[in-house]
Amino acid sequence: MHERQKELFRDPVKGKLGGVCAGLAERFGWELWVVRIIAITCLVFAAKFAIVAYIAAWIFIDKKPAQSLTHSKSAVREETRIERTRDGRTIEVKTRVWEAGKPPKQALKDLVDEFNCMESSLRSMERYVTSSEFRVKQEISRL
């Protein structure tokens, strides 16, 4: 049940300075702000090492391919719960603060909204099928 490990790419679209932190966050399935806090902490406590490491990562890590930039999704980890909507979208629910995905309350709200939309569609179909207009159209089509 293990998925293939995601490759490490820089993501200049989401990134502020080269996209190194954004690439690391996507690779490990963490929230971007957590990776940035770690990078800033390293910069404060080990400035020379952090600057050299960041520049090296900027130079040696490849830029994210163009088709991936438009379809950017976080890595799905075993601890992350997945909910699928009827139109095929997935909602990743994070189980820990630093993981990428939606907080459980937000994911639940999205799912409730989706079910309400489905229910209203079902009610309108039900209303149409039980109406006299439907019966008349059915009779006409039989002729």
Please give a structural write-up.
The structure is a single chain. By secondary structure, the protein is mainly alpha-helical. It has 2 domains: 1-102, no CATH class; 103-143. 55% of the residues lie in helices and 6% in strands. It is built from 6 helices and 2 strands; from the N terminus they run H-H-H-H-E-E-H-H. The chain has helices at 20-28, 32-45, 47-60, 66-70, 104-129, 132-142, and strands at 81-84, 90-93. The chain has a two-stranded antiparallel ribbon. Strand 1 (81-84) and strand 2 form a beta hairpin. Helix 1 crosses helix 2 and helix 2 (32-45) packs across helix 3. The longest helix has 26 residues, at 104-129. The chain starts with 19 loop residues before the first helix and ends with a helix.
State the gist of this model:
The chain has 6 helices and 2 strands, in the order H-H-H-H-E-E-H-H.
